[in-house]
Design goal:
4-stranded mixed beta sheet; single chain; globular; alpha+beta; about 30% strand; 1 helix
Length: about 100
């Protein structure tokens, strides 16, 4: 019997929750989530733990402790480069609160 997509998603969420703190401690990691794995920029139908990094770095340039595994507890890991993330300051000027 194959697993339903819902069971894979629930398993990925469980794995994310267990390993999130360790992943966030690695260099360049900005966030951790669950989503659809991407290959060559295109989404697949495979659920993955998604690790958001400011920039992708060749493995040879990372300390062994900062390497992100390809899979954790049988769940694939997808590394997504998102650039630098900054909190917005002030009020969004596009919305003035009027009509």
């Amino acid at each position: 019997m194959t697993e339903s997509p819902d069971s894979k998603t629930l398993e990925a969420i469980r794995v994310k929750q267990i390993h999130e703190a360790d992943l966030l401690a690695k260099a360049n990691v900005l966030g951790v989530g669950v989503g659809m794995r991407r290959r060559k920029g295109e989404p697949t139908d495979e659920v993955a733990v998604v690790v958001l990094v400011s920039r992708k770095v060749p493995a040879a340039q990372l300390a062994p402790a900062d390497l992100i595994p390809r899979e954790i507890d049988g769940i694939p890991v997808d590394v997504l480069e998102v650039g630098e993330v900054r909190a917005a300051s002030g009020v969004d000027k596009r919305h003035d609160g009027g009509s």
